């Protein structure tokens, strides 16, 4: 049976260009890029080429790109570093929003800091005025995501917020893991001090990510024990993964590829929404206009998420529920709860670079049947 993979927002398949770039470093060229011999220097060139490609995609300077293993590590580095650099003897204050990814919320919760969580409206939008009202003289960091990982809402006022936080001497960290590779991300224009991104959400390899650190901002390293990444992140670099990250970034930067893929993704998810919302009791969550092009979140009245996922899977369609940040269990979503909607009955189909119209057709045909049968059983 053919299958339709519609869970790109969790992880997207590896792009062929990324795999091709990685292969030499998986099969032969495995030198430590920190060594001065010829093999090491050749690996260093490949690593720095990848850094330039990532910087080019994200509107950053190469020296602002600090490679990490995951987006979660990048987030933790931002939170830990901002708290650790605060004035000694003063317990710092951190501001975040109720719809951030669990990596942000949990790292803030474990930091040695006071934390203020700012609410959102019914479409997962945060108001700049609410964030600014939460600032205190001891605020060290503000976290606001670029786009939501469950409902896709894009926070369109980040540049205005960045101007205010910069004027007050407060670091702004933007989690762009869900957005990078799907919408334009310009670190320079955004005005943020820190920005987390990851490769596997847009066709790069797992195990490759980055924290963008604005020039002039100094953070103590989160991972210690070596001088890699200009002493900003210890440990030998995963050269194959990072080279693949660079290749995926370079592909998206060339020939308007990012815009073309976004246009196709928007058309595909618009079709998904139209078909799904034609079923009684199904509505779209999040902002229908200012959203990521590749994912949508659907509220499904009267049916819990897990049987819908299993029913679609039996028909060859892989999707995720918008009701969890965890890959281990389906739990009520703090994002949906913060929006004031049902946190246990939602579905998050998402497309990507390899999605075909036939994949979308499989969902369009299977979804009404699955919902109808589950509701009949419930009745």
Structure characterization notes:
The chain is of the alpha/beta class. It has 2 domains: 4-12 and 256-378, Alpha-Beta Complex (Aspartate Aminotransferase, domain 1), CATH 3.90.1150; 16-253, Aspartate Aminotransferase, domain 2 (3-Layer(aba) Sandwich). The chain is built from 13 helices and 12 strands. The chain has helices spanning 16-27, 38-58, 71-84, 102-110, 128-134, 158-167, 187-190, 228-231, 239-253, 257-277, 305-314, 334-339, 357-378; strands at residues 4-5, 65-68, 93-97, 114-118, 139-143, 171-175, 194-198, 209-213, 282-285, 297-300, 317-318, 346-347. A 7-stranded mixed sheet has the order 2-8-7-6-5-3-4, sandwiched between helices. It starts with a strand and ends with a helix. The model has no long low-confidence stretch (mean pLDDT 95).
Can I get a quick summary?
The chain has helices at residues 16-27, 38-58, 71-84, 102-110, 128-134, 158-167, 187-190, 228-231, 239-253, 257-277, 305-314, 334-339, 357-378; strands at 4-5, 65-68, 93-97, 114-118, 139-143, 171-175, 194-198, 209-213, 282-285, 297-300, 317-318, 346-347. The chain has 379 residues and is of the alpha/beta class.
Describe the protein's topology:
Layout: E1 4-5, H1 16-27, H2 38-58, E2 65-68, H3 71-84, E3 93-97, H4 102-110, E4 114-118, H5 128-134, E5 139-143, H6 158-167, E6 171-175, H7 187-190, E7 194-198, E8 209-213, H8 228-231, H9 239-253, H10 257-277, E9 282-285, E10 297-300, H11 305-314, E11 317-318, H12 334-339, E12 346-347, H13 357-378
Parallel strand pairs: 1-11, 3-4, 3-5, 5-6, 6-7
Antiparallel strand pairs: 2-8, 7-8, 9-10, 10-12
């Amino acid at each position: 049976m053919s299958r339709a993979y519609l869970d790109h927002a969790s992880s997207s398949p590896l792009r062929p260009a990324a795999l091709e770039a990685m292969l030499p470093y998986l099969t032969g060229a495995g030198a430590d890029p920190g060594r001065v011999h010829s093999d090491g220097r050749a690996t260093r060139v490949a690593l720095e080429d990848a850094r330039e490609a990532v910087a080019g995609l994200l509107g950053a300077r190469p020296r602002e790109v600090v490679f990490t293993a995951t987006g979660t590590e990048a987030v933790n580095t931002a939170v830990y570093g901002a708290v650790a650099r605060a004035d000694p003897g003063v317990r710092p204050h951190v501001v975040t929003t109720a719809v951030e990814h669990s990596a942000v919320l949990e790292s803030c919760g474990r930091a040695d800091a006071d934390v203020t969580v700012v609410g959102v409206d019914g479409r997962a939008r945060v108001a700049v005025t609410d964030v600014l009202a939460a600032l205190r003289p001891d605020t060290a960091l503000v976290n606001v995501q670029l786009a939501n990982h469950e409902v896709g809402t894009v926070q369109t006022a980040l540049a205005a917020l960045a101007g205010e936080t910069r004027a007050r001497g407060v670091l702004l960290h933007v989690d762009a893991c869900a957005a990078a590779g799907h919408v334009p991300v310009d670190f320079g224009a955004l005005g943020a001090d820190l920005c987390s991104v990851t490769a596997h959400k847009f066709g790069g390899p797992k195990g490759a990510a980055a924290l963008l650190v604005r020039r002039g901002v100094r953070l103590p390293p989160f991972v210690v024990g070596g001088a890699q990444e200009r002493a900003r992140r210890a440990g030998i670099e995963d050269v194959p993964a990072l080279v693949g990250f660079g290749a995926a970034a370079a592909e998206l930067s060339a020939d308007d590829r990012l815009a073309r893929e976004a246009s196709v993704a928007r058309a595909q998810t618009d079709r998904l929404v139209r078909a799904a919302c034609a079923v009684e009791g199904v509505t779209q969550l999040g902002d229908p206009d200012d959203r990521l092009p590749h994912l949508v979140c659907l509220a499904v009245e009267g049916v819990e998420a897990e049987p819908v996922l299993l029913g679609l899977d039996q028909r060859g369609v892989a999707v995720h529920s918008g009701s969890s940040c965890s890959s281990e269990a389906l739990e009520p979503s703090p994002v949906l709860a913060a929006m004031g909607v049902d946190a246990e009955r939602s579905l998050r189909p998402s497309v990507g670079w390899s999605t075909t119209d036939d994949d979308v057709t499989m969902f369009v045909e299977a979804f009404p049947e699955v919902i109808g049968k589950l509701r009949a059983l419930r009745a």
